[in-house]
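note to self — DONT lose this again. spent like an hour looking for the file last time. sequence + predicted structure for the chain T wanted, 285 res
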Amino acid sequence: MRPSWLKIKLPTGKNFKEIKGILKDKRLHTVCEEALCPNIGECFEQRTATFLILGDTCTRQCGFCAVKKGMPFGINKQEPLRIAEAVWKMQLKYVVITSVTRDDLQDGGASIYAQTIKCIRECIKDCKIEVLIPDFGGVSESLEMVLDAKPDILNHNIETVPRLYAQVRPLADYKRSLKLLKNAKEKVNGLTLKSGLMLGLGEEWDEIISVMQAIRDVGCDILTLGQYLSPKRNALPIRRYYTPEEFTMLKMEGERMGFLHVESGPLVRSSYHAKAQSDSLVAKV
């Protein structure tokens, strides 16, 4: 049984229905829907969404994720334009673009990321763009392709502690992900860098602190920490529920490490309050 602090309201409201309608009309996917995000009602009602590009089928077999897994079929070259049109219609001032992992593509889908950023820039001049990218198999040229398109914030999640990678992210690599973050910070002066962790998969407290420090050491400015919630029956089980007080303690630890913003709480996800996170950094400059 889930603790009381994880109770959420059912999605309702005019904006929620309108956003759902726009996404359906443009034949677009969101990670909010595909990954069964608990904040979908709140975010859609506030007219925010995290667009999922490169289809809805992931080539990885991560045990924590609800996104469909298998072998995708090709790419839709009209997807970047349709997303830009949806962003314009939704009147967004801040948008998050993420994707399934596409190990079947030579560039991992980096060119579609770049085209999506370009299309949004052409349609909406004052919209900030955050990208939540996969590791692109460690191919530096793919990372550079995305960076050359000049996103405002680049996010790549570490997700869990190194000891649990084989179980949680069997086709990913902890050191490769840290290296991607480090390379991104070194290649683009002034780039705002972001990463995050899920808690409750069996990690120890000192492991969490160690990974937080490693993320900070490669130059991350923003950190997100949230409770893992098993999205379906055959997903990895929840080993522990962290209390709101423990999330507050971790937020304080992160701030002591030097993160410019730490979003930490049971229902926090990568893109939760993303615009507010960005705004908080601007206010600190």
